[in-house]
Amino acid sequence: MTAPTATPRLLVENWVRLSQRSLVPPRSIGLVDHTGACAALAAGLCAAAADLGATARVIDDRNSSATTGLDTLVVLLPRSAKLDDGAAAAAVAAFFSDRTWWPGISEAITDCWLVTVGGEAVVADDPSPDPVHAAAISGFRSIGCEHPGVCFRYLDLPAESPFPDAPSTVLSALHTGQESAVALRDGVLYAKRIVESDASVADSSLTAPQHVLIIGGTGNLGLDFCEYLAHRGARRITLVSRSGETAAVANRLQQIRSATSARIEVAACDVGDPAAVVRLAKAAHDAPADLIVHAAVQYSGMELADITTEKAQQALCAKVVGISTILETFPRTADCRILLCSSVAATVGGRGLIVYAASNRMLDAMAHRLRSKGLDCVSVQWGQWHLASAAADTGMAKLAFTGLLPMSASEALALGMGRLRGNAIVAAFDAERATSVLQACGHGTLLSQLTSPVTVGNSAQDATATGAIRRLLSLLAGAIGVDDVEEIDTAVPMVALGLDSLQALELRRRVRAEFDHELEVSDLLGGASIDDVLAMLR
Fold first, then answer.
1. 13-192: which CATH number, 1.10.10.60, 3.40.50.11460, 1.20.1270.10, 1.10.1380.10?
2. Checking CA distances to 429, which of 7, 11, 226, 455 falls within 20 to 30 Å?
3. Cα–Cα separations (whole angstroms), residue 90 to 133, 135, 356, 373
């Protein structure tokens, strides 16, 4: 069934000063200092805990099983050295594959924190985000999707010195309630929000480029860019991919060529091979690019236990290192625009999207760094496309239940190709579903400043219009992202229909609101069908 498209929105990240905040009761904290580089901070946190009525102790290889009495886990990530993109990718791959920082969590743990240094650009004078810490933040959020009922949060400290804030200030920040993304700057606590972009952020005008270079150019997204730019006067477009021009690609290019005057060429090149990139650059020595689009999609669906160094390195190099080599080698004009295609997964995460989210967040950090060097570069986190490759569709399907809706390429590109002043998000979504799912994960405040109101359905009206079975089917369809309730077999276990742990939490919330009945997540994931749930409600 082909889903209709929804109108995309142009959004940006914003950090707000928390002048007032809610606090959780004093916590019993287990600290993980897996590198030993945060020993001073760990000792300070342990010493300061008593002043807040909390307790804190270090967990290491010798006592990782001694989590009795703990309700909070805090992982301390030390400041990174200055690394090039290849070394940063290797460090991220090692972080998620070695997992020396992950002791596992007991049933008593309700909160997991990652403390990073310089992983976010929070205030105007912040340096570019550290790519390793930025990636760790996004991947950590995705790990949380494997542990429903446990809130995965992060606290970012400033990059100027390893831990400039007093341990008591850090410990107080770790007791912040209702926030999952916070940062300390000069002793002030900030929280992340996703907000509508104001009208001055983007200039919709697009000067027809002379030479466009599209990395990942023969994928569906790359071809969408090709068609969009060709129709807007691009004179020359070079599509770069490992596979080159296939029969399916040739068919679509024929349509674009026949409808436009653009000169479109396909170059087979593995951008992960520096020698191949050099050859590509030499072939274009007399035609520098004035627009470079990094549209390569490298979906890597792995949960934490499945991540190996080799798999993670492969995904990160394809997404991050290749474009770095292109920018160092390929000729470009002095005013060349650079657009890096990231994913909304970098912000919201998703089960099985640890490395995928991390690699996209590294692109966001790269764009910050390139702008600081004077380049005209932005990273755009795209939502769900109407037509996507099988791999990309698989990845975004994991986020569909969060409220992301398919958006048409032309409308989305019209927003993302504007003259953006900084990184942005272009996505279409169901605000009610997105907010409720994020609230279930502990991230509800992320969307709290969006201008569109969240609408709530009228249960009484629904009850008079449909029977309980139709209402229940509708709730399940909304939780798992199915468009047609007729596709759901009420006798089949819901896990066989694709229900995962995070979606089970959302279904339980919806049933509670609709039927005033509390379901057990273990029942939903243990093989219950719609018929079984209906029997529970009677």
1. 3.40.50.11460
2. 226
3. 13, 12, 15, 23
CA distance 248 to 239: 14
| Average pLDDT along the chain, 538 residues, taken 10 residues at a time | 72 94 94 95 95 93 70 96 95 96 91 97 96 98 91 94 76 95 95 82 71 96 95 96 89 95 96 95 96 88 93 92 96 97 93 94 98 97 71 54 81 91 92 76 83 41 48 77 71 77 81 80 77 74
Structure tokens at 54: 């909390």
Domain 211-440 in CATH 3.40.50.1580? The answer is no
- Domain borders along the chain are 13-192, 211-440, 463-537
What are the backbone angles phi and psi of residue 120, rounded to the nearest 5°? -135, 150
What is the total residue count of the chain?
A: 538
Long-range contacts of 77-82 (CB under 8 A, 24+ apart): 77/38, 77/101, 77/114, 77/115, 77/116, 77/117, 77/133, 77/136, 78/35, 78/37, 78/38, 78/117, 78/162, 79/117, 79/118, 79/130, 79/159, 79/162, 80/117, 80/130, 80/132, 80/133
